[in-house]
Every structure is written in C-alpha cells, then in structure tokens.
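User: For a benchmark we're assembling, each entry needs the component sequences followed by a predicted structure for the full assembly. Here are entry 17's components. Please fill in the structure.
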Amino acid sequence: MQDNETESELARDFQNVWHPCTQHKDFETIKPLMVERADGVYLFDRQGKRYLDAISSWWVNLLGHNHPRLNAALNSQLEKMAHVMFAGITHQPAIDLASSLIKASAENLSKVFFSDNGSTSIEVALKMSLQYWQQTGKKNKTRFIYLKGGYHGETLGALSVCGLDIFRNKFEKVLSDNIEVEGPDCFRCPYGLNRDSCSAECFEPMEKALEKKNIAGVIVEPLVQGAAGMKIYPPVYLKKLQSACESHSVHLIFDEIAVAFGRTGSLFVSRQHDIRPTFLCLSKGITSGYLPLAVTLTTEEIYSAFYDDYNNWKMFIHSHSYSANPLACSVANETLAIICQKDFMSRLTPKIKLMKELGQQIAEDSRWCGEFRQEGMIAALELVKNKDSKQPFPIEDRVGYKVYLEALKRGVFLRPLGDVIYFIPPLVISEEEITTMMKTARECMAVVLD
Ligand SMILES: Cc1ncc(COP(=O)(O)O)c(C=O)c1O
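Assistant: Structure for entry 17:
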C-alpha cells in the first residue's frame, strides 16, 4: 500500500511522463515502482522497502549503487568542471579513459570515439564503416549483415540492423536495406546439436551472405543476444565470423555494450577469445550506471582513411553535445580501475558457480523451465508451456510479467524478456543475495504456474 503522497506523485507521473518500452495502460492496474534511493544491490521505495536489483538497472550497474569510490571520483571532477564541448577541446578524464580502454581491449584497436549511449555508439560504427568504404574506393559496400534476434539499440540506424520484429516492424519502410541471417539458436538448435560441443554448424547462412559483393560489415552481440531472450551461443561462431570477415574484406562490428566490463567473467569478450573486431562498441557498464557515456573503438586503418588535408573533407562529421562528458569519463576511469584490480574477476568465480548450481536445480525441478542458460554473470530461465516440445506459452498469458509482479512483492526486481526470467545482478552481489534472488524467482514461478 502506498502512502498518500506517493499516490499523488504517481498520479502526476501517469499524467505527464512517457516511460520507455512501456504500455502505459498497464499502470491502470499496477503502478511503476517509485524508487527513492539505491545502495549496493538494492533499490529502496519511499516506504523504505528494499528490492534486489536483479537486472542491474538494465545492465549498467556493475559495482552497486552509491559506491563510495565512484561517488568520490564524481565529486572530485565536479569541483573542477562538469562539462565542456569535445571538438577543439580535450581534457584529462577523456585522455586517460581512451588510453586505458586501448590498453585493455583487443590489440588492433587504437582509436576511441566518444558518444553518450549505446545506440549512438552503434550509429558511429555503422557510419564510420560506410564512410571508410566511400573514401577507399569501394563505394558499393553499403549493406550490413546482422543476426536474426540481434539487438543494437533503437535509433533508426541501429534499428536497421535489428533482427527483432517487435522493435522494427512499424518502421520497416524507412530502414536501410541490410541483410538478416539466421543466427545461432542453441535452445532450439535446428541441427540438434549441443552448444558446448558443436562447431557452429549454424554459421552456414552467414557464410553465404558474406559472398555478396556489397557488404560493408557484419554486426553481432558476441556470445549473448540479450533482447532476444538471453540467447547464448558459443565462441566458435565468433571465431568463424572473424576469419570469414577477414577473407571477404568486411568489417566486424562487436557490440559489447551489454556484455563488457566483467559481465561474462572477463573485461571484454573480444579480448577473452582473441578476436580482433574492426569496431568495438561499449556503453552501459562503462560508468557502472552513474552517467551516460559510450565509445566506439576502431583501428589505425579505419582512422587513417579519414586523415587528410581539411579541404578534402574526409573527416568524420558526427558529434553529440555531451560527447566525452568529463564527469562520466571520471567515473568510467574509476570503474575501470576497480574492475581491473587483480582479484576482481577471480572473486566472480564462486558467484558464477553458485548461479549455475541454483539455475540448474530450478531447471531440473520445474516442469515449466525449458532451459537454464548462463554465460558468466548472465543467467536465464526460459519458461515454456511444454518442456518436451519447447512450446512457448501464448503471449497473452504474460507469464514472465506475472512472475515479475510476484517477485516485486517479495523484494526482488526482475524484469523479464517475454517468458525469459533473467539475472544480471551487480557484479558485487553476495552469494547470499544470489541465493535469495534465484530462490525467489523459483518461488514466484511456482505461485504463477503450479
Ligand atoms: C547489445 C545492446 N546494444 C545496444 C544497446 C543500446 O544501448 P542504449 O539503450 O544505451 O541506447 C543495448 C541496450 O540494451 C544493448 O543491449
């Protein structure tokens, strides 16, 4: 039950605010959670009730809310300068961040372009790729290949490489002409193979698409297709992709916006699996959820195609007012410093193991859990109507949404993707909190379905 003041604030919210990815009619029955403050892995409402943030506020919050070191980095920068434009001007936080990212990422990457959210970092990669081909005499290379189920943001450029109908179908007519290929679908593998031992037989459609002459680049979410329902696929697919892109002279765009900075148990998927993408897009966890910031990293070869006398107009004409915001860069530098501490990743190992044990147990026990899947600190339970046939529930049953509502009552904030209940908690979550989070999900599944 909300107090009167909260009720009236929620009424004002309903009157004036348009929330992202939200059907506002739902608020007629269930109001949004009004959060007053956050600390560690918890969100607190106005009555002081706490909710475990099981999805890190949309992947971003890696180190927990209200982190003393991040607060200090932010405050210290605030006393010097909050913001300044980034054309014709530079500053220490951006220089430091660029060099740290270059040092920590794949060896071939040497230039960092700053922007302010994940979608814009994708726009930058797509535009840089297209302009590169224009300026190096391959003007017909104008199309991108993307995977079915792939998600790279919701601006029009990013949508034109999106493989999920719900995001793109209303805008189809204005999207650029790219190529969707069937990608990995390990849960419902058409080859009947096992993710842990296959050789990415499903690479075949990609191989065929790459034979077309006009391909500028391929874009993928490495290892985990998040918005598609945390679909997890093996690195062997990425290995094949890297070598096919090289042999067809096609750019490889790695969208590590969701998975970077420790989420998979390593700093970057590309570096972990020794893959050298042409573009690496990062955002979300880069400031551990403090401030909007994004970067697109690329190679010397790409950069040099833009480097020329001014009058030749080869520069990259693209900017955002808040590019490389100094406050955001300072928090990002501190975030990286913490994540790069010697024992940070090794402390994730027992947590990853525990999530696996608990998740596998749920999948075994529950007749509604089609699959438990996991990649590092990303875990998901896919709920299905029939475990043998893997038949999904009808959309109108809104099973995932009902589980979410039950979990809220029990103080865990989950936000499912359809009927996939997923867990991407702050990396600093304790083992006890992991147990609470997953046991609560199990209990709510039982309440809703059994
Ligand atoms: C893989 C991936 N790419 C791009 C984006 C877009 O980022 P943003 O929401 O900051 O625009 C997201 C956001 O969820 C994402 O998960």
